[in-house]
Amino acid sequence: MEHSALFFMLTEKKEVSDKTISDEENTKLGVKKPANAFMTPLFSKSTNSPDIGDVVEGPVIAIEKSSIYIDLAPYGTGIIYGREFISARDIIRGVNIGDSIAAKVVDIGNEEGYIELSLKEARQAIIWSEAEAGIKNGSTFELLVKDANKGGLLIDWQGVAGFLPASQLKAEHYPRVEDGDKDKILMELKELIGTKLSVSIISASPKEGKLIFSEKSPDKKEGVEMANNYEVGNVVHGTITGIVDFGIFIKIEEGLEGLAHISELDWGLVEDPKQIFKVGEEVDAKVIEVKDGKISLSIKALKENPWNDAKDKYAKGQKVEGVVIKFNKHGALASIEEGVAGLIHVSEFGSEEKLREVLELGKSYKFIITVFEPSERKMALAIDKE
Question: How far apart are CA 34 and CA 182, in angstroms?
């Protein structure tokens, strides 16, 4: 019997209760179960036959309680049964005879002659293929935020769990917590649960079953073009949108932010940007780098460099007075004047413990300059023992 005739006759059976076709009807139609060891193989291993792992598509020609048959002309008949049928029963529940469905080849021509298929694996393969296409095309999706953790938001796309890192949120949704408290950040992120965000896929890992999303513009070209409107040396006026341990984010224009690293905030020592700046504050900054659509800014570049004057005021061997402002693994840092500081190395004392016994934060001491390289903003100090 030709497949077209077989398909036509089975289409007429669509009203059969619970989609089950009796053995007698299947016999009349020429469709046999895998259990029939005497059937003539329907599959011919031709040179252009599908390989294991290929996704094939064809019309459903018969549905039984534990198996579904698909016409894969000219290759033969495909079957979804056993464990594959059970794992895909939620999908199969909505399938009718005549529907065209895609499935993944898991075995070529079993002992009964059928091409064994997996509907669930095909669905997964198609989803990951669509994810890759979404990354390539910069597609956006309106997705519901299902949950949040301290790192970001949990969302779902076509049954696959995805993660949206907080760093990939737009400025208006980014948790701008003044003191950087992680619990407060989580509370801010939880405010987004139940809302829909327009996001794009930026990473897909089928083996790990992971999708990473971003709320930022997927149009990298547009972002690069916006950034390329600026040049190194330009002075920009913007609004602080976020303060983090390593610096501050400044909104230059709609859709474009720049980062001023903590080392570019002031000539003096900055340990906590939150003590100097506030979210919403307007600032001027100088563009110091434009690369890959990202802009690096400097606030201190708009201030007079104190080391320029220091080169004419200080010299190696000179006695100076300074205030201890910080301890680190190398020793202690002493401020000689605003923006000019020198390091008292721990080796001067033999141990960090001894150093902290002799020097105290906030106190003033007399030092001798042992190294002075103003062009490198480098100064080393030793206690003046006289």
Answer: 58
